[in-house]
Design brief:
mainly alpha; two-stranded antiparallel sheet
């Protein structure tokens, strides 16, 4: 526990705080994240990703993730998020109203921020196979000797053949 001194009429008195050093660090990190998010939103009009937040605050991605997860799970923060969602609806409606009245900047802003709502999420395609900690990609395959490649093909073919036999 941290001890703080405070002045009173009778002199100095020690007061124990309820916050540990870890809690103070947590709050400091939370403030750094809040400032970084506010700055990013003010400049770009959208939420930053975790990589940006880590770089902007000097925190690790893991720490950023923990803070964002805690924010999402906190009852206080959930009520704040509910309020933000309500305000977001009003802001979007105001931007749409301005766009419909001919404000091209508002139209562009509206379309940029609602386009993702109508776009189906794309699956990410990885061009490698990972087995435990071994990653096999095109570069690895190209470095194999012909006999190694042939053994690998035989192994895979044999395994696929066994699996087909089990299902039939």
């Amino acid at each position: 526990m941290e001890k703080l001194t405070k002045n009173t009429e009778n002199g100095l008195e020690l007061a124990e705080t309820e916050k540990t050093a870890n809690e103070l660090i947590w709050e400091d990190n939370h403030q750094k994240l809040a400032a970084a998010i506010a700055n990013y939103v003010a400049e770009y009009g959208s939420m930053p990703n975790k990589g940006y937040l880590a770089e902007a605050t000097g925190l690790s991605r893991e720490t950023v993730y923990k803070h964002i997860k805690a924010f999402a799970e906190s009852p206080n923060d959930k009520s704040i998020l509910a309020g933000i969602n309500i305000m977001t609806e009003h802001v979007v409606a105001s931007v749409l109203r301005a766009a419909l009245q001919g404000d091209l900047h508002a139209a562009k802003l509206f379309l940029q921020n609602t386009k993702s709502l109508n776009t189906p999420k794309q699956m990410q395609q990885n061009d490698f196979v990972q087995i435990n900690k071994t990653i096999i990609n095109q570069q690895v395959i190209q470095q194999l000797k012909p006999e190694q490649l042939e053994r690998l093909e035989q192994l895979i073919a044999a395994e696929l053949g066994e699996n087909k036999g089990e299902k039939g």
